[in-house]
Specification:
The chain is α+β, with helices and mostly antiparallel strands and 800 residues long. The chain is built from 19 helices and 21 strands.
Length: 800
Amino acid sequence: MIHALGAGGPFASRAFLPAFVVAMLLRFGVGWVGGEGTQLELAAAVAAQSASWFTHDVTLWVLGVLSFLELAATKSQELRELLGQLDPLVKPVMAGLTTLGFVSTTDVEIVEASSTLAAGVGSGGFALLAAGGTFAATWVRRELLDFVEEIDADDTLGIAKAISWFEEFWVIGLVFLTVVLPFAFMAIVAVGMALMAWINRELERRAELNKVACEHCEHPVFASAPHCPACGLARTQVCDVGPFGQPNLNSVVSDVENQPLRLLSKRRCSMCASALTERTPYQTCKSCDRPAFANDAEIQRYVTWVGAREKQVLVVCLVLPLVPLLGVVASIVYYRVTLVSPYRRYVPARRALVARWSARFVTTALFAAQCLPGAMSVAALINHRVFRRAFLGYAANAGSAQPNAESSATGPAVVRWSPSVIDTLRRQRRVLVATMLMAAVALPILAATLLRASGADALALPRCPTPAEQLVGTWRARPYLVETYEWGGAYTLQVLVPEMLGGLMPETELMTLEGTYAVYEGDVVITTIAGISRAYAFGVRHGTQLEMTGETAVTTTYERVGEPPPGVAMCPRTPPAGLGVPVVGDAAAPATEPNVPPHTRPPGPAMATTQPGTEPGTGAAGTPDPTSTTQPTVPAEPLGWLPLLRPWSRLHLLTSECDEGAYDHLQTHAVPTLTWTPPQGPSVVMRMDRVERASGSMLILLAQLGDDPPLELLRYGPVTHSGCQDDQSTVGYVGIREDGTLLVSMERLPQRRGASEPARAGHTLRAIVRWNAATGRAETVDSWEGRVVEVPAHLRVRSR
């Protein structure tokens, strides 16, 4: 977000250099600027692992070459003018593209999660914001440079070149501040933009101070203007022309006849002294509509007047080099201002560039031979002749094209424009040009944003998942199995011990503990289970290894079960060095093994075995129990395994006195109901009850829609011990699968008395429930009953 808001600062000065610096920082900059813990680390991790288009080797080479060419071009006045014509389009586009490569994960999530912003705005919205800010900043910068060009059109004094060098350091410094001190970067950009806007207004105000009231009509006119642009009458008090083209209010000109020539030498109108904006002798003043040079005679008169200065310049250039070094520099500035600038201001940038390099070969040699008398005089003479020839040659070509243009204009007009319309367009030309350029910048970015919002995944840029997202998955560190889920913006976890009972209970959830977790700055995760919170420092290596360090400074490594979520493998996180935050929670947690939530310590010998005897749900000889009322059904369609959206909910838990309190600690983790909203269906409340029937105690699954009577979907039982007078311990779970169906498990927990007999797995009824839109009811589409260790694959909680 900060980069997008402040992109106008560096990109208003250069188009390719800030993009190149940003790309290099994303590729190599974490080690340069110490980017650990910043958004640069996430963005750089994506770039390093996924070969992103913005940090690809080819992109870096192209940006590097373009940056070098841009840097070299900005040191030439003619090339600066050519680049200036492309700036309003190229700079915003490069700012938008760079923002697409730099946009952080958090920025995208904030926008896409906001209810006030359209889905899919994400990085496209930030790119549009950066492009718009850059366009505005480029426009403000252009206004300031126009004033510099007005006072020194051919950069004879080197003002524009000095500004160019300053902008290089400005760009590089701002880009580094974006990473190191982002808020300082924003402050500097804001102050810089405000300062440029103030300077522009101040220059406009001072320009108005150079105007005086016409003696005839009281219309404001430049003090150096020979005629008033409003009434057209000649003025009596005409001030001289200053060195930068401004009126010299302290000097009244005596030879009014040459005043138009002095104004033309500063590229100002010979009648009203307004600035001429084009590099051509055949242009019209925008204030008084007078042509700069009406005909060839005026051009010849102008060349003669400039040539009359040649003898004086040669003498000065002969004397000044007697002062070492400084004299040579003063000679170059003097002959450029006096003899070269009057011509170069009316020669297009391409021709001026050719003329400059033609004279530069000779000038460079003479500068090396400055100790020779007259070297600078010869250089002045050569430069004067070269640029005079370029001016006359272009004037002849432009003059021959004028009659053709006029004759074509006198032909039959296809469209007749009203003079008032033309005048309006002329006054609003800047607004129209700005609107068209902004549309050219915004429309491609807006189109890409809309395509991305409509589901065009090919336009989505790779990004690093957040630390909380990296923890989502199934992790194994024997004997523990930790599963984490993202559900409705909240992160939940469950800890299982599937191998405690001799490894024969891989699916039972009798040792499952549910809780929540949150990730904080510094790669710290805080888990909360049964009201007790613990803090761990963590790190994820390539999406496959999770390292967690608790308060005891012991690190436990978990291996991911299955494939990591998309994007996680691209973003390795540095393993934790230790815990840096205090433990927070409802109560102090007792000391346990690292990374093991409460109640998950390995059970003692009295909890390790199962009472031998018949399995629940079977007779003495192992035959099916005839009192069981639940029969397997044939699935309506083939069903495959699907993961759950979140940890499944324990809706029922009733323990038996015959189990000697072995399961009492699980009571606090049962929830009364689960709200299920199936696809294309209403919200249904699911619950489990234990009821008495003629055959014994039964466990039933009920679904209730609104105020309707509850509908019985499943019945499991009877749940009675064969060797105990009390009913057997039972537990029931319901989980929502990814396709919106329910996975249901009703389990008889094995009796637990001693450790003399080997453990046996529990008995379960598994079923899948879906919503039937035709009947408006929930229905069971598949069910299976048997030992937990034999549950079919598609009815399991996890694939392995």
